Amino acid sequence: MQKKQYSSALFPILFGFFIMGFCDLVGISVTYAQLQFNWSETQAGFLPSMVFLWFFILSIPVAMAMDSIGRKKMVLAGLLITLIATLIPIIQFTEVTCYITFVLLGIGNTILQVALNPLLTNVVSGRQLTSFITLGQFVKAISSFTGPLIVGYFSLKYGSWEKSFYVYTAVTLLSMLWLLATKINEGAKSNKTANMGKTFSLLKDNNTLLAFGGILCIVGLDVGMNTVTPKLLIERAGLAVEAATYGSSYYFAARTIGTVLGVLLLRKVSEIIFFKVNMLVVVLSLAILLFVKQQELILFFVCVTAVGSSSIFAVIYTLAIKSRPLLVNEISGLMITGVAGGALLPPLMGFATDVAGSLQGAVAVILFCGLYLLYTSFKLKNNFSEVSV
């Protein structure tokens, strides 16, 4: 009986991680929307904020609601909101509906990120859970990697990048119907619910505050690199928009490779050493990226940054959990809330670009995040080792 549930329920849940990857579509969409609507860098910077702001607002409330309605229903709610978001550009695409689309994508993605991993625990045993969560992140990375390819294809073939939402609508509908038709035994609902006040009060602890800042910065760095890569290729290498958008695919392909390498290396190297070495590489790479102009060098250092930063979210998340083992649920909710870093960085990058008059301003903001993470990699060791486990 358990074997049957395992085989029938695992695949639609893992497919949900592919839909989770749609949030990274915003990186490439900024480039197209900015040209289409003649936005300034500051205006364009607010589009990613429409997606990632909801992680700060909704993560803990979603976790609380999930205790009441169940994990599967919460995931289905996230898929439904994502489906509505992908339908809007098909019906009408304007500046207003563009913002609405990405607001709804952000809300749907927040729900999926909070609910999918817990739902996975209902069909996978404890020993296998880590490997299947990693597999889910790999599926998400494939979605992120193919996004720029799909958008670029529709832009070249039909002269309308927003027509790519036909594909995203069909895939989301398939995911929702597949999960809806799948029976999943969630067991008895928990009487314990996350407490928002208690969760945020954890930030009074310096260790937790440092880790939370690390999550904000690593997500901001990821979204920032996704957003700035095509623009660097356009501004410095003179590439056309369609050709430049493939820079995001290079970034996500390198992140995918980095994730696999991270899984292998973290079995042999301590998390702290891994964190320090990787952030040293990332900071060096970003410092060089401030000045390089050749297409090949831009893509090389973008890929180095992607590989070096790809596993850092997992490292910080794990260290945070280990530091407060009796408050795992609260720490988990707080760290996921930190994904809102993706909303904070793009407007700062846009503002810095407008002030500097070039994308050096945007890269400098990303470099600042890298420097904070490097600082964190040295502080977390001493701070967290003092916490009794």
Automatic annotation (TrEMBL):
Question: Any keyword Protein biosynthesis?
Answer: no
**UniProt-listed Pfam families:** MFS_1
Point out the coiled-coil segments of this chain: none
Q: Which ranges carry the Major facilitator superfamily (MFS) profile domain?
A: 1-389
> What membrane topology was assigned to this protein in its record?
Multi-pass membrane protein
Where does the protein end up? Cell inner membrane
Instruction: Answer whether the UniProt record assigns the keyword Cell membrane to this protein.
Output: yes
Q: Which UniProt keywords apply?
A: Cell membrane, Membrane, Transmembrane, Transmembrane helix
User: By its UniProt entry, which InterPro entries does this protein fall under?
Assistant: MFS, MFS_dom, MFS_trans_sf, MFS_TsgA-like, Sugar_transporter_CS
Q: Where are the transmembrane segments?
A: 9-33, 45-63, 75-93, 99-120, 132-153, 165-185, 206-228, 248-266, 273-292, 298-319, 331-349, 355-375
- Name the PANTHER family for this protein: L-FUCOSE-PROTON SYMPORTER (PTHR43702), PROTEIN TSGA (PTHR43702:SF3)
Protein name in the entry? MFS transporter
